[in-house]
Structure to design on (816 residues):
């Protein structure tokens, strides 16, 4: 990698501040100092023929942009300022900037809110001429050819009618009508509730079949429906595997269904007639309602723009139409547009801005500007992003061809922002997505209420063609992610390849939940091929899967490199262990040192733990100086808390047979030689205060105290998000089966690992095979081994809560 700028690792217990990039200015860039007067003013009651004075302002934003172009040749050595007065500016076309709109280092340009006011820039259209029908519905007729599936009423998102507005339909299988063995274009479904799958649906080509795969969510078009055989045939096929396609047990929705328009807060736009119908929520009054539909897919775009700041502005109401032939989901929904798109920026700053009500992503930074021209080539700070159809911020993209150091985004700062309530349409999108980019500092953000990853770095698997280096994610607060809607997620996720300078530091992560029919609600996650990542001083609590997940490449890296180092973290209530390892390796892939793990389920690790047949395992994974405590066991030390596994195929869905080990047996493998089982002595865990008391035994193992309260936005943050309407119902209760995996093959005895969650305490769990009860336990988790008859077996794991409510997970396995 090029010499450039190097990140500075944060030491445990360090002072609060901006750590990460040792460059001119360091940490967060200085906030702009706004003038008290401006060169030009814009106001809704202005006139573009006027000179743009405070008393005679321009009317449109683009007129101000053109005026700045002229003024640039007449002034130098000072800031050119445009003040935008209060009001909503409905754009006739995307507000577009090019290099001719640039400032310079000595004469920068600022577009800002008039002091004390909050102008709104909208890519939407105000919908008028509503009438109230006899049944209380609101209707208006739009010009033919106008079509959209997003709507906002009084500042809140509303959704097209769904057949199950408060829940889901469930998949029983995926099939191909063409004989394909690898793709499927037909979904089989479980018995639906009344009206869940109508036999006929008006405007069938507009119906949105939303399919929740593992980490992707597709929006398919329907060719036909057969309610007798319970099959839905789609107009195109999905790849069918254990991770993709129509996965048995996974959920789906039917949206934009005219016949389903029954519940307040839903709408339907009838394309043939142009009639838009909305059922109002309680308290909504037609005469005072503001109803806005989307008009443009992008609000603001810029290419080769330099030394321009956008301050205190609100950008809203962009569109993302589902393609006429449907949308096959992609990781991170990476190919969808952003409402604001900046390409090849130099010293472009967004400061104190709000982005909301978007069709897809909020803002993106692509390409690169002129390195060295400014501490950061692009900045988004002190902002608010909420109610996005997809993710919040995107920097760089998925690798489709090998890039160079020079042509990817670099030196980008994302700090002190609130990013919440995203993925409202495209549920697989990320709060912050940093793709093929380097020297990106992401700090002091709060990211919450997304259905997939919170912050992701890197976007190429294994070792080649990955420029994601020197990217630091630190002091962020990430919470309430996944919500049971998707699988294979992490609050902080690195797919950064064979690189240096990457670090996950001093973040606070909690309440991460995957789809109960899937897997992978992890706190911190290094994905296939990511090596050399420092993961230090993070607090992680309440995850539906393990606290940490390391998915290694099964092949050794082409050059010697440092393993991922998980050090000095506090990990609490990881439901499937402290550390989940996927794919066996022939090399040292990670080290796990000086961590505190407090749990109440039955494992410390999860996944694949094979040492290539050797007696000592430390050539492949290393554990030491860790503190463990099982809160469900008297004394905190279970009899056999660890396990090892034989070899398993690359990316095998099947969890291999497990050999359970006591601490002494685990230490005989070279692991955790100096580690302890002891109460870490948290100050107040009932209140989620996991600070260690001074007498904690963790300190004797080399643990260094850090302060999790430093994570999140700074005290200077002022922007707050209103409540955001949920895009998809949460699935936070149910049975989670870690082993066996659906559709996999097993030799006897078959290992069962499962747990259940509910709003009331779980009192018992049970395993049935082919309708016969095989095992029952009075607990909220189970671990046992059963010898089953060879052949295809139907397994049902059930749980009951204290109110008598039943939860279950069914799957089919093959016993050898």
């Amino acid at each position: 990698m090029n010499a450039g700028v190097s990140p500075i690792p944060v030491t445990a217990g360090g002072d609060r501040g901006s750590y990460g990039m040792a460059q001119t200015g360091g940490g967060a860039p200085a906030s702009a100092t706004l003038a008290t007067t401006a060169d030009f003013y814009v106001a809704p009651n202005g006139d573009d023929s006027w000179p743009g004075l405070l008393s005679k302002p321009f009317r449109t934003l683009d007129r101000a942009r053109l005026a700045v172009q002229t003024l640039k040749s007449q002034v130098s050595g000072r800031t050119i300022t445009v003040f935008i007065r209060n009001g909503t500016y409905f754009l006739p076309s995307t507000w577009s900037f090019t290099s001719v709109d640039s400032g310079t280092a000595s004469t920068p340009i600022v577009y800002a809110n008039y002091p004390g006011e909050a102008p709104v820039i909208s890519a939407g259209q105000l919908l008028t001429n509503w009438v109230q029908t006899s049944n209380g519905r609101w209707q208006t007729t739009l010009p033919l050819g106008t079509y959209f599936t997003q709507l906002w009423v009084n500042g809140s998102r509303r959704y097209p009618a769904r057949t199950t507005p408060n829940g889901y339909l469930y998949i029983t299988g995926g099939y191909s009508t063409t004989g394909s063995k690898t793709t499927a274009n037909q979904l089989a479904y479980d018995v639906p509730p009344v009206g869940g799958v109508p036999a006929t649906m008006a405007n069938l080509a507009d119906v949105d079949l939303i399919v929740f795969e593992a980490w992707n969510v597709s929006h398919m078009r329907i060719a036909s429906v057969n309610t007798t055989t319970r099959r839905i045939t789609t107009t195109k096929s999905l790849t069918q595997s254990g991770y993709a396609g129509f996965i048995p047990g996974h959920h789906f929705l039917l949206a934009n269904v005219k016949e389903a328009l029954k519940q307040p807060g839903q709408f339907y736009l009838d394309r043939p007639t142009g009639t838009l119908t909305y059922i109002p929520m309680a308290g909504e009054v037609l005469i005072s309602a503001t109803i806005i539909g989307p008009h443009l897919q992008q609000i603001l775009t810029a290419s080769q723009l330099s030394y321009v700041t956008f301050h205190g502005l609100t950008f809203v109401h962009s569109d993302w139409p589902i393609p006429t032939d449907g949308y096959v989901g992609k990781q991170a929904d990476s190919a969808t547009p952003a409402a604001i798109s900046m390409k090849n920026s130099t010293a472009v700053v967004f400061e104190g801005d709000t982005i909301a009500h978007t069709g897809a992503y909020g803002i993106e930074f692509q390409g690169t500007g002129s390195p060295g021209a400014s501490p950061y080539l692009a900045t988004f700070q002190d902002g608010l992003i909420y109610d996005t159809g997809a993710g919040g911020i995107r920097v760089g993209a998925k690798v489709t061809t090998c890039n160079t150091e020079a042509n990817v985004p670099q030196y980008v700062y994302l700090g002190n922002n609130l990013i919440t309530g995203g993925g409202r349409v495209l549920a697989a999108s990320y709060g912050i997505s940093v793709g093929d980019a380097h020297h990106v500092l992401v700090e002091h953000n709060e990211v919450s209420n997304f259905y997939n990853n919170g912050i992701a770095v890197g976007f190429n698997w294994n070792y080649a063609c990955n420029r994601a280096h020197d990217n630091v994610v630190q002091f962020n607060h990430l919470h309430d992610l996944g919500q049971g809607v998707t699988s294979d997620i992490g609050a902080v996720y690195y797919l950064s390849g064979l690189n240096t300078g990457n670090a996950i530091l001093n973040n606070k992560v909690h309440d991460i939940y995957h789809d109960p029919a899937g897997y992978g609600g992890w706190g911190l996650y290094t994905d296939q091929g990511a090596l050399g990542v420092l993961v230090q001083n993070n607090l992680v609590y309440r995850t539906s899967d393990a606290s940490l997940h390391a998915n290694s490449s099964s092949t050794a890296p082409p050059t010697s490199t440092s393993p991922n180092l998980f050090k000095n973290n506090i990990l609490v209530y990881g439901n499937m262990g402290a550390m989940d390892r996927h794919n066996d390796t022939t090399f040292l892939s990670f080290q796990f040192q000086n961590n505190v793990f407090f749990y109440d389920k039955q494992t410390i690790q999860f996944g694949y733990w094979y040492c290539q047949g050797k007696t000592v395992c430390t050539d492949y994974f290393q554990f030491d100086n860790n503190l463990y405590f099982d809160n469900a066991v008297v004394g905190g030390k279970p009899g056999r808390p660890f396990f090892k596994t034989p070899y398993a195929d690359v990316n095998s869905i099947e969890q291999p047979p497990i050999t359970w080990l006591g601490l002494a047996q685990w230490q005989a493998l070279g692991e955790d030689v100096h580690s302890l089982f002891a109460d870490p002595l948290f100050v107040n865990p009932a209140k989620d205060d996991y600070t260690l008391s001074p007498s904690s035994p963790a300190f004797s193992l080399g643990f260094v105290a850090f302060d999790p309260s430093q994570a999140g936005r700074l005290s200077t943050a002022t922007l707050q998000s209103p409540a955001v309407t949920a895009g998809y119902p949460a699935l936070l209760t149910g049975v989670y089966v870690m082993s066996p995996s659906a559709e996999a093959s097993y030799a006897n005895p078959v290992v069962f690992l499962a747990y259940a969650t509910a709003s009331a305490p779980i009192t018992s769990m049970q395993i049935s095979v082919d309708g016969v009860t095989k095992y029952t336990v009075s607990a909220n988790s189970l671990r046992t081994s059963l010898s089953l008859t060879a052949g295809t077996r139907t397994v049902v794991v059930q749980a009951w809560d204290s109110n008598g409510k039943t939860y279950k997970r069914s799957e089919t396995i093959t016993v050898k």
